[in-house]
Amino acid sequence: MEKEDYKTLKKRRKQGLIAAGILVILFVFVPIGAICYYKGEKSGMDGETKVVDIIENEHRSTNEPYDLIYSPEFKYVVDGKEYSCKTKLHTSRKPDKDTIVYYKTDDPSKCITSYELTNYDVFYVIIGFGVLIAIISSFSMWRITKKMNEL
Predict the structure, then answer these.
(1) What is the pLDDT of residue 79?
(2) How far apart, in whole angstroms, are the C-alpha atoms of residue 96 and residue 87?
(3) How confident is the model at residue 1, as a pLDDT?
């Protein structure tokens, strides 16, 4: 009987470790990768300018029909020529005229906006959730290991 209990505990510990590992990857490493991606995008840009016009591209959320979602396009001018910077994010935060466009001086059509760079705050919440999962999983694994050692 004790051998079965030990095997069951060992199996639960292994399953818990696998599940915790997957959740930590999803809730910690993926958001960190997204943050690094957006920060890396800006690091390649050596010019900056203010937005001259915004096309808000607002639409209703499919989940919450009362929520407006924006996927704005920012117009900016470099050396007298107008360019357009379309964001990759869809967010409920309304774009504003204080947005800065970062662009490559050798190819001003390549750009990223301060609007995109400040919209990854949600990733920090997700990372916090991932850390919480890791702490709870560690405590659970400690309890299982303690029970195994008692057998």
Answers:
(1) 93
(2) 13
(3) 41
Three-class SS string for the chain? CHHHHHHHHHHHHHHHHHHHHHHHHHHHHHHHHHHHHHHHHHHCCCEEEECCEEECCEEECCCCCCCEEECCEEEEEECCEEEEEECCCCECCCCCCCCEEEECCCCCCCEEEHHHHCCCHHHHHHHHHHHHHHHHHHHHHHHHHHHHHHC
- CA atoms in the 13 A half-sphere facing the CB of 120: 17
What residue type is assigned to position 123 of the chain? F
Domain count, the chain: 1
Identify the segments of the chain with pLDDT beneath 50: 1
pLDDT, residue 119, reads 61
CA dihedral sign, ordered 126, 128, 130, 132: negative
Report the amino acid identity of residue 90. H
Answer yes or no: pTM beyond 0.85. Answer: no
Domain that holds residue 143: 2-150
With contact defined as beta carbons under 8 Å apart, do 84 and 75 qualify? Answer: yes
The encoded tokens of residue 5 equal 């209990």
Rounded to whole angstroms, the Cα distance separating 59 from 72 reads 11
